[in-house]
Amino acid sequence: MLKFGNDWDKLLQEEFSKDYYLRLRSFLQQEYRQTTVFPPAVEIYAALRVTSFQATKVVLLGQDPYHGDGQAHGFAFSVPVLVPLPPSLRNILQELQADLRCEPPNHGCLEAWAKQGVLLLNAVLTVRANAAASHAERGWEQFTDRVVELLNEKPQPVVFLLWGNYAQTKGRLVTNPHHLVLRAPHPSPLSAHRGFFGCRHFSRANTFLEATNQTPITW
After folding, report:
1. Which end of the chain is more exposed for a tag (fewer CB within 10 A), N or C?
2. Sign of CA dihedral 211, 215, 218, 219
3. Is the separation of the CB atoms in 127 and 29 below 8 Å?
């Protein structure tokens, strides 16, 4: 049985015996045997292992993992420390610098955010090498919908950062009015200039957290 080592174990336990998840697991076993899949199997659930349900204060939704060699490590938008910044992540750090007037990190690993309660969740948690969206519509969307549904039920207010149309489709699951939903275009170079730059989501998230008696994120 899959274990996260935190409160997600109990909350998501029922998902692992459902037909859709059993089909997904079978598909993944075959994919990992026959082709190159990212992230490595041991890192598929890294975001949920590092950021527990109770600790989650901010949810940053991505689409699917980076599909280049060595980029994906289980956290949406993040790459390991020594990996060059993908364009979307470069734009995220540029907006962070402009918003908070801070020096951005000299790497693209966002795990420090995750440890503070930022759930870096992709809608689809795996991808075939060099084939974007190749694991879409295989069951991951149902699994991550359940994660968002559970967070929507959380009595503690949560900030949801929905960047791009794909992430915003999951916004339909956030119906509890005490949460804050912030929407912006995707940080991709194709769309960042249409409103991602200048959205100030980092400062707006922290203002909300402070207003709800929560510790702000050190972005």
Report:
1. N
2. negative
3. no
The tokens for 136 are 């879409």
pLDDT surpassing 80 at residue 1: no
Residue 104 is predicted with a pLDDT of 83
Q: pLDDT tens across 80-118, in order?
A: 999 999 999 999 999 999 999 998 889 999 999 999 999
Two tokens, residue 105 = 């990190």
99 in active site: no
Whether the bond between 86 and the residue before it is cis, its omega within 30 degrees of 0, is no
φ/ψ of 161, rounded to 5, equals -100, 110
Distance CA 177, CA 12 (A): 24
Helix axes 87-100, 201-211, angle to 10 degrees: 60
- Which H or E element spans position 190? none
Residue among 7, 19, 64, 69 flagged as catalytic: 64
2-9 long-range Cβ contacts below 8 angstroms, 24+ apart: 2/45, 4/45, 4/48, 4/49, 4/52, 5/49, 6/48, 6/49, 6/52, 6/53, 6/54, 7/52, 7/53, 7/54, 8/48, 8/49, 8/52, 8/53
Rounded CA-CA distance 24/124 in Å is 11
What the block records as the tokens of 179 is 């949460």
